[in-house]
From TrEMBL:
This is Outer membrane protein beta-barrel domain-containing protein. The lineage of its organism: Bacteria, Pseudomonadati, Pseudomonadota, Gammaproteobacteria, Vibrionales. Residues 1-23 form the signal peptide. Keywords: Signal. It comes from the Bacteria. InterPro entries: Autotransporte_beta_dom_sf (IPR036709). It comes from Vibrio jasicida.
Amino acid sequence: MQVKTKLMTALLIPYSCTFSAKAAELDSVANSPWRNSIEIYAQALNIRGDSKVKNLDANVDIDPEFIMDHIDMGAMLRWESIYENRWGFYLDYSYMKLSGETDSLLQPDLSKIRAEMELRQGVLEAKGFKRFTYDFGIIDYMAGIRWWDNDVDTKIHSTNNIGPSINKGNSPSVDWVDYLVGARLTTKLNEDWSTYISGDVGLSKDTSFTSALQVGFRYRFNSWSDINLSYKSTWVDYDNGDTFAYNTVTQGFLVGWAAYF
């Protein structure tokens, strides 16, 4: 009987050590002064406004259907960290690459023109914030930047032998940084639901005005994840006076899933 007891003890020691290590790991995460989250999301984008590439003016009218028909690549990701529920920061990056072409440009002399366009746009938002807790909710006072990175590649060339030959291209690459201040209010509705509103305003050397507004709800699935349901809109009026101008509103419904650790 004593031999059996010793044998069982020897067999259970590794499992006991494993459970103890897991418990210690979870306890260290729970006791860490840092609270982190990573969120993947998708937004049904609508982009409206005006754009100018060198001497070419164009109206911008892009809806979710157009994006789904012409998208080559896309990614939307957000990281947020807060220390002792007081000081924090977040990084939010969205990227999309669109391409399209048409053969339907018929000139008065019956020459046929083919036009091709490729658009790559990346937007990185980085902000630090200070958190204050009130009776009605939590307010994060924020300051940071929004970096725009736009590449537009256009090509126009003849596709038949009627009329003069045309072969033109334009490939400007423009990026700039806007400086922002803003705030975010979060209010808990019950154990699982919370609502929030976040906004900012800013400008830069070539940006006369930029602003963003996001309103939504978060639903908590469990202790380590939730879903984000919101509507987000971003305005920008940029003109470098030379090669590129971009005066648009980007808006749409957003759905995201976040994990906390």
